[in-house]
Amino acid sequence: MALTGLEIYKLLPRTNCKKCGQPTCLAFAMKLAAKQAELSACPDVSEETKAKLAAAAQPPIRLITVSAGSKKVEVGNETVLFRHEKTFYHPPGLFVRVRDTQPEEEVKAIAAQVASYGVERVGMHLGLDGVAVENASGKADSFAACVAAVRSAADLPLILMSEDPGAMAAALEKAGGTMPLVYAATEANWKDMAAVAARAKAPLAVRGTGDLSALANLAESVKGAGVEDIVLDPGVRGLAASLAVSTQLRRLALKQNLRALGYPTIVFAGDGAESAAEETIAAGQAIAKYAGFIVLDHATPASVYPLLTLRQNIYTDPQKPIQVSPGLYEINSPQPASPLLVTTNFSLTYFSVAGEVEGSGFPAWLLICDAEGMSVLTAWAAGKFDAERISKAVKGSGIADKINHRKLVIPGFVATLSGELEEELPGWEIRVGPREAIDIPAYLKVWQ
pTM of the entire structure? Predict the structure, then answer.
């Protein structure tokens, strides 16, 4: 059990030296207890104390890694229930399930599709993370052959699914060079499955039957057998039940410091779903509430893209918006007579505007103003996108030497800045552009 703030304080040097960045040792102890600081920040703590404080310094949810080649999926290490409290660190891995009863060529095709699928959004590449291989046949040789087929088609992280320790051992041999997640240990097989996972030094999922006390005991038994990296499957299915138990597990790990349940979870979005659409809904819920691994049975571009977008949004630090570098961007090879547009450096704003300009076919200069990653209206309201900042960006960009006119197009939402900008930029004509990026192509047609 983790230590309280006062218990931690008694073990610290209590010199109030401030080397840790906190005003007192007591303040540092409280930060440690709340999982908001690292023990390494104190340079004077003894080795004996480090050992005693290990439980308090560890994140409440263990970090689990599965990997293949250069690609890895890390889940866990989360410290808060709600994203706005701090941030979520490790987005859940999205895996697509294949079964060893499917034809080999079909399995290879699915694995290749998983590996090749990818989209770019606000400058970031989004894609699926791996393949889950299920021993649906119950045969060790079929299971091993299916794993080999997946490995030959794509170098992806794997989840190996079988309750037969012998079949799992055979599959692990074919998964050489990877670190897969072994699924699953149950009350009936946990000793043998833990031995298999321990030999492979692979993380092991434990599956319960809906009883969290029994799940905690099973996890402790597996840990006692030498497997430290554990993933939890509570064994419940359905939207309401899954939401309730995932929330309970997160609260027990974070608020009650229950180490036996302080592990990432795995969700099978297709189990119990009556349609592909319902599976997508279940996967979306699992992304939001609090899955570590999500296994999909259907993965079309239409169903996967919204899940990737949701995951990206939720696992973006709310205190650090995704942003692009301020500066002058050239779109469609602009000439001296091309229009000059200005906006903020919030990534979604930039890519929306740049995408519409590029799609229009019209050349343009796009000046990105440093607004600390905020959108146009948010930055304007916060005083981060005002006449003074825009003027400074214009003067510092060197655009005056690149164009043969003095016309600046500002976003329609900040039309009120026109007068102030004309004062800040004498000789410039301030034009008010569209409010929405989608209207930019039509505006550029009549810009002159």
Answer: 0.80
